[in-house]
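ok so for the tutorial part 2 we go from a plain amino acid sequence to predicted C-alpha cells. step 1 is just haveing the sequence, like this:
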Amino acid sequence: MANGPTVRRTVSALRRSLVPFRKAGERIALVPTMGALHRGHLALVREARRRARRVVVSIFVNPSQFAPHEDFGSYPREYKKDITALTAAKVDLVWAPSAEAMYPHGFATRIEPQGAAKAGLEDKFRPHFFGGVATVVTKLFTQTAPYFALFGEKDYQQLRVVTQMAKDLDLPVKIVGVPTVREPDGLALSSRNAYLSVQERATAPTLYRVLIAGAARVKRGEPLEMVLEEARAEIAHAGFGLDYLEARHALTLAPVASRKDGPIRLLVAAKIGKTRLIDNVGV
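step 2 — the prediction. this is what the C-alpha cells look like for a chain of 283 residues:
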C-alpha cells in the first residue's frame, strides 16, 4: 500500500489477491466505478472504508451498457489520476480488467432485470442499459465476493435495480446506497459534467433547484400532477431538452398518484447541449 493499491487485471490474479483477506476473516467492500473518479466516487470509498476492513474499487468502462450512438468511445478515462486518488484514499485493491478479460471470446450470457428496470425512466431512453449493468455487476459480485457493495443515489434507478437483483438471485452481498455528492450550487457530481460548456454549467443546477422546490410543494400537500407539470415547464424554459420528470414510489419505482401512495422519489433526466444529466430527490 505504500506505493498505492494493488492493481489486478485478470480474474485469477484478482482472486489470488483476495485470498489473504478472506483467510484473515476481513470483510471486503466493493465500489464499482467506470473511472474518471470525482468526489462522489471518493465518498463511496470513504463509506466502504467505514464499513469494511478491505476496500476494492473496480474501474471498468462497461461496453455492454452503451448503445452504438452513445459516448462509449469518448467517455472520460483518467486512469493515472484515478490511481493517485485511490492511493490517497487508502484503497487496498483495484480491479481494472480489459473488456476481453470481462467478456472473453464466446461470452454468451446476459441478465435481463425486470421490475424497477422496466419502470419507464432510464430504460425508456436507454433500453439496453440495465441489462448491461446487471450483467457486469453480477460478474463483479461473483469475482470479488464482497460483503458490501456501494452505489451512489444519483443513479437511483440503477441502485434499485441492483438491490432487487441481489435479493432475487440470493447474492450474499449487502447493497448500500450513498447520498449524492453535490457542488455548492447543487449540481450532482458526474463524470459527464466535464462535457458542459461554461454557460451550460451555469444552467445545470436548475434541475436540482426544481426538484427541491417540487418536493417541498408535494410535502405541503399540493396536487402531484400540477407540481410535476409546472416543474417540467420550468426545466424546459431554462433550455433543457427534458426526457422525463416523474414522481415514483421510492422502492419499486412504480407510478404514484399522490403522496399517500407511499414514499416518493422525484426523478429527472434532461439534456443541455450535448450533455445528458440525471438527478433525483426524496420527498
